[in-house]
Write a structure and sequence with these properties.
Length: 119
Amino acid sequence: MGIERHSPAPMQAICDTTIGGTSTEIPMAGFAGGIIIMPAVTSAATLTFYVGGGTTGRTKQDQAAYAPNYTQLYDDTNTAISRTVAQARAYRIPLEAFAAGSLKIVSNVQVTVEVLLKG
């Protein structure tokens, strides 16, 4: 698992592999929208979104004191936000996620996705 960054703002691509579990921290600060692209070779999956305060850009002391606890993301009807995704499609990241400092995506199966974020 890991995050690889390409081209800084205004569009930032993050290649993120989730292996039937949780992605690494995806920094959300400074971004206002984004999409998840499912490659053609990827199987269908259910993605669930978790948010936290984030540690990116903080000093090591602050990171230790502010280690984010991730909480499952819910909408205003108190329904957990998840997406059932299929191969060769793009999906909007839930807008609620952009209020958080960081995001983690949990997948029910091994899946590789590309996350594009825009400020």
